[in-house]
Amino acid sequence: MTSEVVVTNPVTASQALERAKGLLSDLVHQYQAPGAKAIGSTQLRNMLIHVENIEARLTSTDQHPANAIKRLRDFSKTIERLQTPADVGGPLSKICHELATSLRLAADLLVADSAQPVAA
User: Fold this and answer.
1) Sequential DSSP letters for 20-43
2) Structural element, H or E, at residue 18
């Protein structure tokens, strides 16, 4: 299965999370292909489930998103480590780069949103 990464500029944490979910789903399919890297699609699917849970939790609670921010940044670092020199410039490298960027952006936007005063 081949897919094309469409570059978008999310402006909200929710949009960045939606983008990340789409890219994670694409990576799951890529890593299920014959001859894929050692990391399993199971780990990527688990990461996708966590991102979905983070998104659902953020829309259903007023709690500070500190745990979500940390988790998104950790996921970003993990995805960055998936890339190898042989992949640079290839389709998986582009997906990994986009995904890491989307996860970091979502975390940064959550930090900014949590610093905003809430109207009473």
Assistant:
1) HHHHHHHHHHHHHSTT--SS-HHH
2) helix 13-32
- Whether residue 67 lies inside any domain: the answer is yes
Taken as a whole, the chain contains a residue count of 120
Q: What's this model's pTM, rounded to 2 decimal places? A: 0.79
Alpha-carbon gap, residue 65 to 57, rounded angstroms: 9
CA atoms within 13 A on the CB side of 111: 11
Q: 34 is in which domain, residue-wise?
A: 13-114
Number of domain units in the chain: 1
Written as tens digits, the pLDDT of the chain (120 aa) is: 444 444 455 579 999 999 999 999 988 887 776 655 556 678 889 999 999 999 999 888 778 889 999 999 999 999 988 766 566 667 788 888 999 999 999 999 999 888 765 444
